[in-house]
Amino acid sequence: MNARPVEASAFKNVMRHYPTGVMVVTSLREGEPRGMTLNAFASVSVEPPTVLVCVNREARSYLYISTSQIFCVNLLGAEQIELAHRFSGKTRERQFEDIGYETAITGAPVLRNSIGYFDCEVVGEHHAGSHSIFIGQVVDCNARSGAPLGYYNGTFHDFGIRVE
Ligand SMILES: Cc1cc2nc3c(=O)[nH]c(=O)nc-3n(C[C@H](O)[C@H](O)[C@H](O)COP(=O)(O)O)c2cc1C
Predict the structure, then answer these.
(1) What is the mean pLDDT of the chain?
(2) CA–centroid distance, residue 6 to ligand 1 (Å)
(3) Beta strands in the chain (DSSP E)
(4) Element (H, E) at 84
(5) What is the pLDDT of residues 39-82, one digit of tens each?
(6) Atom of ligand 1 lying closest to residue 87 CA
(7) To test ligand 1's pocket by mutation, which of 23, 38, 131 has the most ligand atoms within 8 angstroms of CB?
(8) Is the entire prediction scored with pTM above 0.90?
(9) Which residue among 56, 57, 68, 90 is best mutated to probe the pocket of ligand 1, counting the most ligand atoms within 8 A of its Cβ?
(10) Which of 10, 64, 147, 152 gives 20 to 30 Å between its CA and that of 19?
(11) Is residue 61 lining ligand 1, measured as CB closer than 6 Å?
(12) How many angstroms separate the alpha carbon of residue 2 from the centre of ligand 1?
């Protein structure tokens, strides 16, 4: 590899042009739930059903996922913007206070009213720069009809699309 990486500002500037959905990735460690807002998510494989999330190793959630080896990807609906803010680092303690959630098969929280979720067991972790790519095998998933919360150009959006 000869070429040098581009400046972070140039990288971020192009990334702003890429629209994504918004998720809260939850986990559970020693009985304590933790969650973080995330948009670095992708489908990896259908056979077996596998997804990936990219988590900053300095985020508290990193410790929870790497220790417990479980995570649940909660796909936020357009009306759940408040949860996106709550789980983006602003609430340090008692993140789940006053929030309705159920417990997934793995034990991770499934946020009530999210438009879908993938409950996962970690089957791989790869370091890439500041982040770790966690590969998760899906052990349970479900979805409801509704509009997704979107993220584009540094802000949250209702893209005006929905699945019935
Ligand atoms: C829209 C949005 C997308 C984000 N995507 C990611 C991501 O893909 N990976 C990541 O590590 N942090 C991402 N973050 C930042 C984390 O939410 C934030 O650093 C984290 O909640 C702090 O976690 P901690 O309380 O576990 O330390 C994103 C934040 C926002 C608002």
Answers:
(1) 97
(2) 22
(3) 20-21, 23-29, 32-38, 41-45, 50-56, 70-75, 101-103, 109-111, 116-128, 131-143, 149-152, 155-158
(4) helix 81-85
(5) 999 999 999 999 999 999 999 999 999 999 999 999 999 999 99
(6) 21
(7) 38
(8) yes
(9) 56
(10) 64
(11) yes
(12) 31
DSSP label at residue 78:
G
134 vs 90: which has the higher pLDDT: 134
Q: How far apart are CA 45 and CA 47, in angstroms?
A: 6
Closest CA to 80 of 57, 128, 113: 113
Handedness of CA 110, 103, 50, 162 (dihedral sign): negative
DSSP bridge partners of 24:
37, 74
- Burial environment of residue 56 by CB neighbours within 10 A (0 to 12, 13 to 18, 19 or more): middle
Confidence band, pLDDT 50/70/90 cuts, at residue 14? very high
**79 CA distance to ligand 1 centroid (A)?**
19
- Any atom of ligand 1 within 6 Å of the Cβ of 41: no
Q: Is the CB of 44 under 6 A from ligand 1?
A: no
**Which residue's CA is the nearest one to ligand 1's atom 27?**
59
Closest ligand 1 atom number to CA of residue 56: 11
